[in-house]
Amino acid sequence: MTSWWRRELTARARAAIAASSIAAMIGVWWLASGPLAWAPPLFLPPPQEVAATFLRMCVEPYIGSTLWVHVVASLRVVMTGWLLAGLVGLPLGIAMAWWRRLRWIVFPVFQLVRPVPPLAWIPLAIVWLGIGDTARVSVVFIAALVPWLMNSMQAVYSVDALLVAAARSLGAGERQILTRVVCRTALPTLVAGARIALGNAWTTLIAAELLAASAGLGYIALNAARTLETAVLLVAMAIIGLLGALFSVGMRRMTRVLAPWSVRATDD
Amino acid sequence: MTSGGATPGPMPRARRVQPAILYGVATLGILLIAWALATSAFALVAPRLLPSPAVVIERAATLITTPFSGATLAGHVVASLQRWLIGVTFAVVLGIPLGVLLAWLPPLRAAVTPAFELLRFIPPFAWVPIAVLWFGASTTTQALVVFIAAFPACVINAQLGVGQVDPILQRAAQVLGAGPLVTLARVVMPVAAPSAFTGVRIAVSNGWMALVGAELIVGKQGLGFLISQGQNNDSVSTIFVGIVAIGLLGALIDLALQKAQARILPWTPAAAGAR
To answer: Tell me, what's the ipTM?
Structure first.
């Protein structure tokens, strides 16, 4: 018979184990930083201090503004870059998959640029555009463009050729096939591309803010590290992670709204 | 598409150049000529902002022969590769067994997954400031960031691979008298290996990307440091050389792994080769 450590758990048992493991983690953190004093507070402040710092940052300004203003500053840049990349990448990717001449022209350039990590453009963006929002938006744009474009191409390729042929034989024109058949069937892959693009955009923005910014979560993190305010640094990291997770969950929800037929019952 | 094929006919003619390659070469050629004309012939752009191709090549030659910011180009490459290798090795050696265990032992999965999912969404670069605080601007810091970037891909893909194994295969092995360890080694691992390897490929490129970021933020050597020095010295040609080196090495590493996958795991399905 299967031994207990190989058996699948019930949902209730899973939730109980998950809750106790998170509680244990926080407990170890509390013990290590407080009563046992394994780690000096400079390296690892106790959990209650991080929570207090978070509450304080919500109401009192830290380096210029409250936490929420910094969050909005980061979100504005990430959304601008991501949307611009979508406006360019989505139609371009679909067009490149549909018209091969366009693909032959654009794809080599794209292939040349693709292996370079988006972050490597940051110094160039700073030299060319200064340390303002423009530089950060353009780096986020490059980071988000690749998944937007690649997934759009992939999405069109994956459309069943039979569907296109059927539409054509039923008298649909090129334009109708593109809008009514290709874009419709390709929607789940397109949304997946948008999700990956948003994740890349977020990661890249944080790096860009660590290098040059005057507001934003990455800027808080860098400043806190310089002034050795570890609790502030941990708050910034937590908010960065939380927003990243929210983006991912939100985009998955979006798939369910836009293309409900593609979501299997077991997916969440 | 007009493909060759074994059509009965007169003499096989010399193969026509693929139009795709023709277009590609033409596009890149036009871009290169436009760059050269705009910078040197017509001087449309300030050389400070966009140096001419000749200047960039010259700069590359200088960087290869004479040290800049503490090392020659080769020195920076070696420094980067070393940190990257340490981080990636730890990620693979710890991540793949963890992924297999998570798929194999449901209680462990229930305990580890929540914490893993919470931490996974913090981008690797966000760890740089705290890693600096803990370990200083050292190789450990850079390798740690590479590790953080590479680890999740190893765990997730190994777990996914083990999850894909047909339960009937496992039961068949059991019926034939195989114990859990033998089943794991002889039945589960070969099926899961392609997915795990794909995880390694993603991990490797994530790690390379994170390293460049970490070196930009802190560091005294390495390719990321080289381009940040280019920025500080207002030398766009140095940044260009650094970007090309980073892109080239990243592409070469992925190509090598792709070849290795075809060699070591020839049963990899075609779809698993792609991201």
So the answer is: 0.84
